[in-house]
Amino acid sequence: MSSQGPKEELLGLLPLSGQTRGKDIANAVQKFLEDNGIDINKIVSIATDGAI
Question: Whole-model pTM?
Answer without folding.
Answer: 0.62
